[in-house]
Amino acid sequence: MMPDSAESPLISPEEELAALQRAIARHDRAYHGRDAPEITDAAYDALRRRNAELEALHPELVDDQSPSRRVGSAPSAAFGKIRHRIAMLSLDNAFGETAFREFEARIRRFLGLDAGAQVALVGEPKIDGLSVSLTYEAGTLVHGATRGDGAEGEDVTANLRTLASIPARLAGAAPHLIEVRGEVFLGKADFLALNAAQEAAGLRLFANPRNAAAGSLRQLDVGVTAGRPLAFFAYAAGAVSETVAETHWAYLARLRAWGFSVNPLSERLDGVADAAAFFTRVEQARAGLDYDIDGVVFKVDDLGLQRRLGFAGREPRWAVAWKFPAERAVTVLQDIRVQVGRTGALTPVAWLAPVGVGGVLVTRATLHNEDEIARLDARVGDTVVLQRAGDVIPQIVSVVPERRPDGAAAYVPLAHCPACGSLAVRPPGEVVRRCTGGLVCPAQAVERLVHFCSRRAFDIEGMGEKTVVAFHALGWLGGPADVFRLGAREAELAALEGWGELSARRLVAAIEARRRIGLERFIFALGIRRIGETNAKLLARHYGSFANWRAEMAGAAETGSDARLALGSILRVGEAMAEELVEFFTEPRNRAVVDELAGLLTIEDAVVPGGGGGAASGKVVVFTGTLETMTRPEAKARAEAAGAKVTDSVSKKTDFVVAGKEAGSKAKRAAELGVRVVSEAEWAELLGGPG
Ligand code: IVH
Fold it and tell me: Ligand 1: which residue has its CA nearest to atom 16?
């Protein structure tokens, strides 16, 4: 069966929360851990919102791993860890003046101030970078850490020391201990120059200045960080051993005196009206600034009041981030084209009539997946509203239905991969459509070949990613079978730069040594989705030989066939895994690659557990009549798991005929041939009891 529909089964809140938790953690790692977000901020926010919604409905399901209990992502293992003396928290957002005025009213209520009383605030541009905490002891910088998960960050001291705007020693008198906090960022012009250099060098581009800053700071080679023009604005304090100021405004002055850069646009404000006017001024100045800002942070100026206000959950009550509305523009959706990722994920991309959004000329936008297209009901020819929220890649927010041209057709998801023509399928419950032709798809070739040769698969020494990439670029590796044809290229290989005769001979020998391979490794090497080492072993043991596995998989591709039912009933083979196998074998080119490989290799039978022991082991069995305690496919699967071979017709080679109800000609034939006929119960006994 080919799951082609967009329908996903109903799932319980528990399952949905678990899925959200995994997805959010994954995107946190991609964003904070690798500085390479996979989805837009808006899509990420939608996941978080859904999580919050479900948690509010089911508070009993909230646990410590809940995304609402964590800030950012755990520090990456590549750096040492530093525990912040005082947690680094985030800010509550206000979208619009009403929300900002509510923030101020909440403060007055909390402090019991009159309606007429004014709360002095400090306004600072909200820099779109990454926050760090700098620890100074006796005026000397001793540690510098990223925010990490808020409690613990990464030790990036050496990297931070390379920033000109971070003093190694504080100028003038300083407390014995102080944690200075602020934002590391990269200017817009420096960001564009960095991306241009990355592109010229064939390296990955950064999505926005913030990711570029994070990526530049979190370099294991400090020399790389030193070569990137990172800047720093100081704006907060963590732990302090003695009072350094009574107000935030006075604290900012001390930061300047110690030698830090403090954002020059920061202002002390007398109340909400003053603050709102400041917001407008900063918004107007935004386009002319050389660095990205995404709003204005307002903080209660009086540090005594800040202490009284304290924190609510992850956020201080005394500060808020009033965010700028996202920049928008209107343009025409000229086409929807599908990109194939290295892992076979199909991503629809919007091709747009070029339009300027926030100073950047935009021609493409990601559409994420087909659900997103359906949600927007975006059609080629539509006029669409675009939004850029800090990211280089913008998103489509909505379509303008009145401007839809006549005859604009709804998007139809591709049934075949645009890169290789293989079937494209969307497993039930998943949002991503995938190409099933991993072994033949050029978009996935390198990834699959690296896996194929890797240690736990074919284990070919010397065929690491670099070599695979190089051979693939030379056109030597169209598919995995070509690995075993490299021997014929030994002379060409020896002539390659950096190779030579000895290395070429070694590689060819390493390849030749792997022409004989166990079935489980062979199955694992194919890189079928969900078939990891454990499942490959399970399948190999169950089917025993390559020939049997291959024949059963071909049979299983037929809906409702015995082979399909038998596959589904193998103990521990889940339905999702069975589907992946079926899809893989439904694609004719995958079958061709498997057969091509089989022709070049000796695939050894798997060792069947209990092969020497059980009474059924090695026996040839025929089932007949209607079985009462199990289905036919189940009986077959269990017999095979016990090491028996199940056939359809009775011959002299048959050891047992298991006769169910109304057993007919087969039982008769067995009697004629003198083959032992057993009842279902006796057979169960032979297998070692029921279950
Ligand atoms: S104060 C406890 N001030 O915004 C509050 N944060 O959304 C500490 N940010 O993690 C933060 N400019 O990375 C503060 N002038 C500013 C800021 C600022 C940018 C960032 C910072 C923080 C995030 C919160």
Answer: 126
